[in-house]
Design goal:
mainly alpha, 10 helices, globular
């Protein structure tokens, strides 16, 4: 993937931008959604720190951006959330963590709806942009549904599960990215993401038959 993206940058900068820019902003919107919901639920931390903005400079993480080029997906700096400011902590965990996933599914849905409403040609730059926008956001949503810290799925589960599970997840969270990368290397996460992608696509097809 590294060579593929880098070769694309040198051979076809426009095609490269059509992939990387939607991916970058999909990640940014994912993080802003967390902060926006947290702010609505009583925690203005992200707002105070200037993170409720679509300016990617405010969100870029050096290593996460590098991974964007290395493996084709990456991450932004997590939006800071102080759940102590949210009256119902469990509900806060569920809704704030779900916000990023929901935002990615909505982006995919809106892109497909726009494509259909305006009868855009099935070939050309517009079709390429919609294709990557949909694929990127469905994949981001599927990845974040996996219940491994620090992915959103783990925090949603922490909001539902007993305290012992929440404490267990909190203990392994510092090692979460190492675990995730290891599972990717072993090929264990690929079928899981594939199944979750199938579920999300099925949901979109129900909403957009």
């Amino acid at each position: 993937m590294l060579m593929g993206l880098l070769n694309l940058l040198t051979k076809d900068p426009l095609a490269f931008a059509s992939i990387v820019i939607p991916l970058l902003y999909s990640i940014v919107i994912h993080e802003v959604a967390h902060g926006w919901v947290a702010n609505r639920m009583g925690d203005p931390t992200a707002k105070w720190m200037g993170r409720l903005t679509l300016n990617p400079i405010k969100h870029l993480d050096l290593f996460g951006t590098l991974m964007l080029f290395v493996v084709g997906f990456g991450w932004a700096k997590p939006v800071p959330v102080n759940f102590n400011n949210i009256r119902d902590r469990r509900k806060g965990l569920i809704f704030v963590s779900s916000a990023g996933i929901v935002s990615n599914i909505l982006i995919a849905f809106i892109a497909l709806l726009f494509f259909r409403l305006f009868s855009l040609p099935s070939s050309g730059m517009s079709a390429i942009l919609v294709f990557y926008l949909v694929q990127i956001n469905i994949t981001l949503a599927a990845l974040n549904l996996i219940p491994i810290p620090p992915l959103d799925g783990s925090k949603i589960l922490m909001g539902i599960a007993p305290d012992t599970v929440r404490y267990g997840f909190a203990r392994i969270e510092p090692y979460g990215f190492i675990i995730i990368l290891g599972l990717f290397y072993l090929g264990i996460l690929d079928p899981v993401i594939g199944f979750l992608r199938w579920v999300i696509v099925a949901l979109i097809r129900v909403l957009l038959p």
